[in-house]
């Protein structure tokens, strides 16, 4: 049977204690030479890239959606106008009207 | 009340297929160049101060490339003019601006080729430094796009001269060309400077 920390396993108890102690002393980890480098210009470039690469696709999706929405609305609006004109017996409206 | 059948609505062509397909393609291309820019800027900013570009590497010709930039921007304006002329006055009216637009696009490509030859002679190659690697990758990718977009415009031009140019073909070619034109000043300002 495996020992649990509560059961007095000294290795696991040491590991837990070490993890708690480390969490009390946070330090900035420069693990990645690119994103976490000490160079402020580099950090800014990474931050700006992250923002732009996140925003560009969302912006393009939004533009595409709005463009399609506008086209659908403009086409279906003409259709309803034609249908209503047919019902009332009035002449069909032209695109300019 | 009469209802519109949703199935009919879904099958309707709300936009030109060629244009829509090109828009999706351009979308992916925007992301490609954004990723290139991101990688370039991070690498450039991670270089120690004064080390970009390295001392033994030639400087990119920012000032002389301004002329190429003007030629490409003018080409974009002329293609837009051709579009409006074609819509307002018919195909014949679009011939001159489209011909000039295509010619300026070809001029841009020729000048870029000459610039590349000069840089290669000065020792800037794909493997000489990170500057060279990024330069040929990013500017080369753009040049490849210019070649493809120019081929599309030439296809439209031959159709225009023959008097049978489908509007959808021209619309898709224009969108691709505008993308190539608009992305260039960004590349020029970021990579060359």
Describe the secondary-structure layout.
The complex is a heterodimer of chains A (97) and B (193).
Chain A: H1 10-24, H2 40-88
Chain B: H1 6-11, H2 17-46, H3 62-89, H4 91-122, H5 130-162, H6 167-192
Give a verbal description of the structure:
The complex is a heterodimer of chains A (97) and B (193). Chain A has helices spanning 10-24, 40-88. The model of chain A has no long low-confidence stretch (mean pLDDT 77). Chain A is mainly α. The model of chain B has no long low-confidence stretch (mean pLDDT 91). Chain B has six helices and no strands. Chain B is globular, with a radius of gyration of 20 Å. In chain B, 27% of the residues are buried. Chain B is an all-alpha fold. The N and C termini of chain B lie far apart (64 Å). Chains A and B meet through helix 2 of A and helix 2 of B.
Helix content of chain B: over 70%
Mean pLDDT of chain B, to the nearest integer, reads 91
H/E element order of chain B: HHHHHH
How many helix segments of chain A? 2
Order of helices and strands of chain A: HH
Q: Determine the number of helices of chain B (DSSP H or I, runs of at least 4 residues).
A: 6
Short description:
The complex is a heterodimer of chains A (97) and B (193). By secondary structure, chain A is mainly α. Chain A contains two helices and no strands.
Defining traits:
heterodimer; A: 97 residues; mainly alpha; 2 helices; 0% strand; elongated; B: 193 residues; 6 helices
